[in-house]
Amino acid sequence: MLTIAVASGKGGTGKTTVTANLAVWLASQNVDVAALDCDVEEPNLHLFLRPVWTKTTPENVPVPEVDEERCLGEECRKCVDLCRFKSLIMMAGSVMVFPELCHGCGLCTLACPARAIREGAREIGVVRTGATAGADSARIPVVGGEMRIGEAMAPPLILAVKRTAPASAVRLIDCPPGTSCPVIASLGGADLAVLVTEPTPFGLHDLELAVGVLRKMDIPFGVVINRDGMGDDRTHRYLEREGIPLLGTLPHSAEAAHCYSEGRLHVDALPGFREAYASIWENIRTLAAREVSR
């Protein structure tokens, strides 16, 4: 199984577009591929793949529940003092819990000498599974998460999406944009990453941040330049200077933007894009083979 994370340093570069088009192109080549939408705060991969959802499962995280009859209060304070996320505080001699701040590590339960804390549950969102509605030979399993409104912790839901995904020959992960904790959770365990960027100063700035993250995580990666032809050549020169593989380019055009705005796939609607994704996939395979032999 080859797990490929499609990521970007900022939103709006075309990361989801690349994920969806590459998944459909691979399926058309009889490659066993699954698509995962780990952008659980703003999932939109389904707008392009249009899966039929067959199962929706709530995802919970453990949160502490305090038995005030057993709690030792001020004379103990171990749970309050050990919680690095400040989800427990001492108020008027009693422990008060802020479930939204709890990361579900369970340290407070383990540390309580009076066994006054047990683990409850709090729903953070749902995991949806389904498949595209194409012909049987081209059906693509799709798994995605959607966070509950007001929820702040995406990583547990992202990990649930990855646990739920089928063991396909190729797994494409549509990561959240940026370089924060949800991105780290999405990238974890990936065999390689495809960074999608655009040739603008903003795009280059955030690409450099994303490159720093991937180098820190020691994940091999290459870059796809979307909307090539707009902006300038600084991104090309940066990749050459840093020795970063350019996996391919996708042209900037009004037709491509119009196609995107209607939720249509470039590989289905525009000439030249199928060849572009074929080239990108060949370069991904070359990169993967190089890393295996390293």
Please give the structural blueprint.
Elements: E1 2-7, H1 15-28, E2 33-37, H2 45-49, E3 51-66, H3 78-82, E4 88-91, E5 94-97, H4 107-111, E6 117-132, E7 141-147, H5 155-164, E8 170-174, H6 181-187, E9 192-197, H7 201-217, E10 221-228, H8 234-242, E11 246-251, H9 254-261, H10 266-269, H11 273-292
Parallel strand pairs: 1-8, 1-9, 2-7, 2-8, 9-10, 10-11
Antiparallel strand pairs: 3-6, 4-5, 6-7
Organism: Desulfobaculum xiamenense
InterPro entries: 4Fe4S_Fe-S-bd, 4Fe4S_Fe_S_CS, CobQ/CobB/MinD/ParA_Nub-bd_dom, P-loop_NTPase
Pfam family, one: CbiA
Structure at a glance:
This protein is α/β, with parallel strands linked by helices and 294 residues long. The chain is built from eleven helices and eleven strands. It folds into two domains: 2-59 and 128-292, P-loop containing nucleotide triphosphate hydrolases (Rossmann fold), CATH 3.40.50.300; 68-115, Alpha-Beta Plaits (2-Layer Sandwich).
Structure description:
- This protein has 294 residues and is an alpha/beta fold.
- It has two domains: 2-59 and 128-292, 3-Layer(aba) Sandwich (Rossmann fold); 68-115, Alpha-Beta Plaits (2-Layer Sandwich).
- Helix content is 35%, strand content 28%.
- It contains eleven helices and eleven strands.
- The chain has helices at residues 15-28, 45-49, 78-82, 107-111, 155-164, 181-187, 201-217, 234-242, 254-261, 266-269, 273-292, and strands spanning 2-7, 33-37, 51-66, 88-91, 94-97, 117-132, 141-147, 170-174, 192-197, 221-228, 246-251.
- It has a nine-stranded mixed sheet with strand order 3-6-7-2-8-1-9-10-11, with helices on both faces.
- Helix 8 (234-242) links the parallel strand 10 (221-228) and strand 11 (246-251).
- The longest helix is centred in the C-terminal third of the chain and has 20 residues, at 273-292.
- The chain is elongated and about 70 Å long.
- The model has no long low-confidence stretch (mean pLDDT 94).
